[in-house]
Design brief:
Layout lengths: L1 E6 L4 E8 L3 E9 L1 H5 L6 H22 L9 E7 L3 H18 L3 E5 H7 L15 H4 L12 E6 L4 E6 L5 E6 L5 H11 L6 H18 L24 H18 L20 H36 L4 E5 L6 H11 L5 E3 L3 H4 L4 H11 L23
Bound molecules: 5'-O-[(R)-(carboxyoxy)(hydroxy)phosphoryl]adenosine and zinc ion.
5'-O-[(R)-(carboxyoxy)(hydroxy)phosphoryl]adenosine binds next to α6 and α7.
């Protein structure tokens, strides 16, 4: 089964062609990061207009890349929520129109479910796993993630710990009570003057600062120990206290050095170090990098420990990472450290499939389509959609 997937929930426009829910024949993403960078975050109105300009060229490129024509496509899938209403409308409307025009089945996809199903993707048909044609359209293949499993969904707007006993079966174990993990990365990057998107910027600043210390043969010991909200007895998270602590530390750092420019967030921009002499600038940047590293360590610590506890309680053999923050190298390493001694395997998508893309949308759609599920063409966008949690 070949599914054309379309993703337009925020500031990325994606189209992909996926075979049997797993094999990536084409995956094209047009990113607007450069446009939103100058505003320090996504401007919804700008994002939806960019989506409109990008969506058809992206779909055409995906068809070309996969060497496919319309006759080869078996179904169309598009994200219908959660996300920015204006952006979602573009991909959903185009997806439904294409399905209507080509008389194909249509499925609206939950963006969070799509992030989880990125873990089923394989870049090329696996030579070792030659699959019988009769088995290809199966929900369970060798090499797929194994149920039951724990999934840590960490994106720009969501942080959830979920138990999956089977396909599309989600039991909510815990969620953030305030900021999402990605949101915390973005806000703290802004406080530190590191730019947008915050996650990759913080990861890089932390790495550069640690490298600088190593080069100077100084001990790589972080002087910044940030607070962790453990919320004991629950699998819930809270990151807003950590963000406030960062704000105070950053302000202190500025007061020690030189006044910074106030930010709309009420924080201070400490990146003005770059305007100083090169030695002072370097020292300043190392401090910012160490602050970034301290923050990253605190957030990763809580996510990894809670995920390990859930894996132990529910006796799973696998943990999946999903969402943009799954691209974080420190999170992956810290989780491996927690899970490997227990014999629990950690799985995460390649970086390009962690952040928003349409391959994951088509993959998630496949498992619904297999069961004969379809959506009518009057399906609307749902900006606040959550995962369809089971009630227990
Ligand atoms: O899943 P995603 O692309 O979009 C949403 O569905 O929200 O996630 C975007 C989030 C942003 O907050 C971004 O800062 C974060 O993922 N992110 C990272 C990294 N790459 C992206 N966070 C930490 N480390 C990264 N390497
Ligand atoms: Zn996303």
């Amino acid at each position: 089964m070949l599914v054309l997937g379309i993703e337009s929930s925020c500031d990325e426009t994606g189209a992909a062609i996926i075979k049997d829910g797993r094999y990536v024949l084409a995956n094209v993403v047009a990113s607007q990061t450069e446009i939103h960078e100058r505003y320090g975050g996504v401007v919804p109105e700008v994002a939806s207009r960019q989506q409109l300009a990008a969506v058809l060229p992206v779909i055409e490129t995906a068809l070309q890349q996969a060497h496919c024509c319309w006759e080869d496509i078996d179904a169309v899938a598009a994200t219908y929520g959660p996300g920015l209403a204006g952006s979602l409308l573009v991909g959903l409307t185009v997806g439904k129109s294409l399905a209507l025009a080509r008389d194909l089945p249509f499925l609206g996809v939950n963006h969070l479910e799509a992030h989880i199903y990125a873990n089923w993707l394989r870049l090329a048909p696996d030579a070792d796993l030659q699959i019988d044609a009769s088995e290809a359209e199966s929900a369970y293949l060798p090499g797929d993630p194994l149920f039951p499993l724990i999934c840590l969904v960490v994106s720009g707007a969501h942080s959830e710990l979920v138990l999956m006993r089977d396909h599309t079966d989600y039991l909510l174990l815990g969620r953030t009570r305030d900021d999402a993990a990605g949101e915390a990365f973005d806000k703290v990057a802004r406080i530190l003057g590191l730019g947008y998107p915050g996650g990759p910027a913080i990861q890089q600043a932390a790495r550069l600062a640690e490298e600088e210390l190593r080069q100077q043969r100084l001990p790589v010991r972080n002087p910044y120990r940030l607070p962790r909200a453990w919320l004991r007895g629950t699998y819930d998270f809270s990151f807003s206290g950590l963000k406030t602590a960062m704000l105070h530390l950053a302000e202190g750092l500025v007061a020690d050095q030189q006044p910074g420019r106030p930010l709309p967030s009420g924080g201070r921009q400490v990146s003005r170090y770059t305007a100083m002499g090169s030695e002072a600038a370097k020292r300043g940047q190392v401090h910012i990098g160490l602050l970034a590293a301290g923050f990253q360590e605190a957030i990763v610590d809580v996510l990894a420990v809670k995920t390990r506890m859930a894996a132990q309680e529910y006796h799973v053999r696998q943990v999946l990472l999903a969402g943009g923050v799954a691209a974080n190298v420190a999170l992956r390493a810290r989780l491996e450290e927690e899970l490997t001694p227990l014999g629990v395997q950690l799985q995460y998508p390649p970086i390009a499939f962690c952040t928003d893309n349409a391959a994951m949308v088509a993959a998630a759609a496949f498992f619904h389509l297999l069961r004969g599920e379809r959506h009518d063409l009057d399906l609307d966008v749902e900006p606040n959609l959550s995962l369809p949690f089971r009630q227990e």
